[in-house]
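Severity: low
Component: inverse-folding endpoint
Summary: output formatting inconsistent between runs
Steps to reproduce: submit the following structure tokens with default settings.
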């Protein structure tokens, strides 16, 4: 079955404000995006949690990477709503809405980790043929360097991550 081509890609950095690799890359690409632009594809670098980045802390009120669920995305905006919930709604408005045909095709969410896992790709859905083929391409392009893929799929879990807004969510972790 033919699928529409990937036309809109976002690269997220700063989901956790103290994970600086993605922050530095996103800021670099916001200033000079020529190296990530491709004909026929819109690529948008985006700083997801600017307040946490400014404070160099994981988050302000709650973990942004856990609030992209229907309850939080549909929550009424009131004065005391947690900053990250309000930010999730803004991100969903820009790159989604989550689960819709209008959502961005692909979101790369760049993270750091303190565990000794090196550069690792995170896969949330083993039935996403596009993402599996993309991971295969990335792994071959990086060879002989190691690039493990961590499958975090769970049959009854609906992911509430920043990247889950896209049709094809990808997490990338670096040590």
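Observed output (run 2 of 3):
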């Amino acid at each position: 079955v033919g699928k529409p081509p990937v036309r809109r890609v976002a690269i997220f950095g700063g989901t956790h404000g103290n994970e600086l690799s993605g922050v530095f890359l996103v800021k670099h690409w916001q200033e000079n995006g020529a190296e990530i632009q491709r004909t026929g594809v819109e690529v948008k670098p985006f700083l997801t949690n600017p307040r946490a980045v400014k404070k160099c802390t994981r988050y302000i009120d709650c973990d942004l990477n856990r609030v992209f669920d229907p309850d939080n995305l549909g929550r009424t905006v009131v004065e005391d709503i947690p900053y990250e919930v309000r930010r999730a709604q803004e991100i969903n408005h820009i790159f989604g809405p989550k689960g819709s045909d209008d959502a961005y095709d692909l979101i790369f969410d760049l993270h750091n980790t303190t565990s000794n896992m090196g550069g690792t790709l995170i896969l949330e859905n083993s039935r996403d043929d596009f993402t599996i083929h993309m991971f295969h391409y990335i792994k071959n392009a990086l060879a002989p360097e190691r690039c493990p893929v961590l499958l975090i799929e769970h049959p009854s879990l609906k992911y509430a991550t920043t990247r889950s807004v896209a049709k094809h969510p990808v997490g990338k972790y670096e040590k």
